[in-house]
Amino acid sequence: MLESTVKPTALKPDTLHHDVSLQRLNTFGLEAKAQRYYRATSIDSLKRILAEEQPVLVLGGGSNLLITKDVKGLVLHVDVRERKVLQVREGCVLVQVGAGEPWHDYVMHTIKEGYGGLENLSLIPGVVGAAPIQNIGAYGVELKDTFSGLLALNRETLKEEFFDEDDCEFGYRDSVFKRKLKGKYIITHVRFTLTVDRHDYKLEYGDIRSILEGKGQSPSPKSISDAVVAIRSNKLPDPAKIGNSGSFFKNPEFTETAFLELQKQRSDIPHYPLPGKRYKVPAAWLIDQAGWKGYRRGAIGVHDKQALVLVNHGGGKGADLWALAKEIKQDVETKFGVKLIPEVNVV
Ligand code: EPU
């Protein structure tokens, strides 16, 4: 078998490999090759490779990544695993998790332990180390709500540094690691404070409350997680079956004046008020109204149950997916005067 067709995680870790297929390392399932590939399973291993060569691409779970062509140079896959309770405080645990732990598996682990805090973030694709970079969020909860710091390796000094919540400068699908520290650090561990009792539930978003009521269940980390899994599986495609990376664009935000202008065009536009007299509008609605929902061109398309999700039905090319994304962006701008900003990282 050619090395490039082997699942990269089956290759010997902590070793440099050449010409490795990245298809199974990005949730869009796009074919692209890494000239060199290294999967680091420890901090020492990370330091060793970084001392030799700086990667051109660092892979988390590949879930927020659109690869449009082969990668010349080193692709570094961070696969540090750990699930540790650092401290038990009154009613809470402080946990530390390795960046390479798959996000949903870790959430399921916390549910099994009876910990609360991550249940609304069930079934989000990707790995733990990628989660703070874009402050993942769903159903009224964001990563930052339970975040208690992270450890990251400085790519230049090869020293480990601790970042607290303020250092991370979290925003909507945003952090310092997407802005001024972009490409400067490699996250190795993330800490969360989770509740052991006196859980604080968020039930107001989506259909969580009505699902629980319909089943006659009282809220618990487990029942909420089950509800979120049910809601998400209904409208978001499973990356194992249809390549995708969740929401492709961010939901745009407006000043009051700009929003009222938009509302003049379409009085039925869904919107959510934000602090500071700002408004958020679902990008899914704009794309849907522009007529793109369920659109398909070859292997590439727009999901038929959620217009914000671009999909690779199998065998699609990253460049074609990016071309479609740009067309949708242009069309929404022409029809509504709104500029959509991608949530995914385009390589
Ligand atoms: N809508 C449409 N057409 C569609 C889908 C939605 O018109 O095809 C409209 C509806 O009015 C709906 C509204 O858009 O009420 C919002 O849709 P939805 O509840 O599905 O949420 P979203 O705003 O599209 C956001 C996050 C998701 C997160 C959900 C649930 C962003 C960019 N996306 O989606 O996050 O799971 O809320 O909280 O903020 C992700 O980031 O990858 C992601 C999936």
What does this structure look like?
The protein has 347 residues and is α+β, with helices and mostly antiparallel strands. The protein folds into three domains: 17-78, Uridine Diphospho-n-acetylenolpyruvylglucosamine Reductase, domain 2; 83-195, Uridine Diphospho-n-acetylenolpyruvylglucosamine Reductase, domain 3, CATH 3.30.465.10; 247-346, Uridine Diphospho-n-acetylenolpyruvylglucosamine Reductase, domain 1 (Alpha-Beta Complex), CATH 3.90.78.10. It is 24% helix and 26% strand. It has eight helices and 20 strands. The chain has helices spanning 43-52, 103-113, 165-168, 208-215, 221-235, 256-265, 283-289, 318-336, and strands at residues 16-21, 33-40, 57-59, 65-66, 71-78, 83-89, 92-98, 137-138, 141-142, 147-154, 160-163, 185-195, 243-244, 253-255, 272-274, 278-280, 296-297, 300-302, 310-312, 345-346. Strand 17 and strand 18 (300-302) form a beta hairpin. The longest helix is centred in the last third of the chain and has 19 residues, at 318-336. It is globular. The structure holds uridine-diphosphate-2(N-acetylglucosaminyl) butyric acid (EPU). Uridine-diphosphate-2(N-acetylglucosaminyl) butyric acid (EPU) binds at residues 138-139, 205-206, 246-247, 250-251, 270, 282, 284-285, 288, 293, 306-308, 343.
